[in-house]
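Intended use. Records such as the Mitochondrial inner membrane protease ATP23 entry shown here are meant for training and evaluating sequence-to-structure methods. They are not intended to support clinical decisions.
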Amino acid sequence: PPAAERRGAGEDEDDFGYRLFPDRNKKPQSFLVRSLFTFHNKCQLMLRLTLETNPYARLLLEALKQSGCTVFNDRHFSCENCDGCVSGGFDAATSQIVLCQNNIRQQSHMNRVVTHELIHAFDHCRAHVDWFKNVKHLACSEIRAANLSGDCTLMNEIARFKFGLKGHHQTCVRDRAIRSILAVRKVSKETAEKAVDEVFDACFNDLEPFGRIPHSKADAKRAYRDFQNRDRYTANL
């Protein structure tokens, strides 16, 4: 799910998805206490591996830095226990990515979640996203995250027992964007579908910072190399 920002005591935080992240409202535990939990240790190790080796994440981290939003591992990522239906989220109030340590068990899953949430962070950095009052803004970032994070690769869709030929990638992106909106906002399915449909073409074709739809790690590596070389020609003039 996308960003969730703290509101005043009089507002219902459930409207913004905080019910899915119960640890957000608890006092932080000491490092020693957290280290006693295997889930937390494993989450931290998988996160480090993702940030150091995954081309999707490395490109996004560099793009965020160039946009003026440098990401620090200890400051901007938090491994926490979450509701059973979510794997991660972006908290706009703290500019922090939440990783659901009790739901992320495999490295490939960690790679996708980190990438998905970094795309939300990138959108938050480069644009004035109104996550809460404008469902179209939320829909646009969810479309981009589903499209560019690897959520809808062929292998992932086969693992979900979903098959299709022509236009299946677009169908997957649309469906996952709608699901994400419904997970964190108390809106009707019709409202979510309308928001996604109204912005789909523009947001699906916004491929920044990848410059392409990275359907595989090989695509992501090429995109990362191209991103690093993007300004080289101009610099040599």
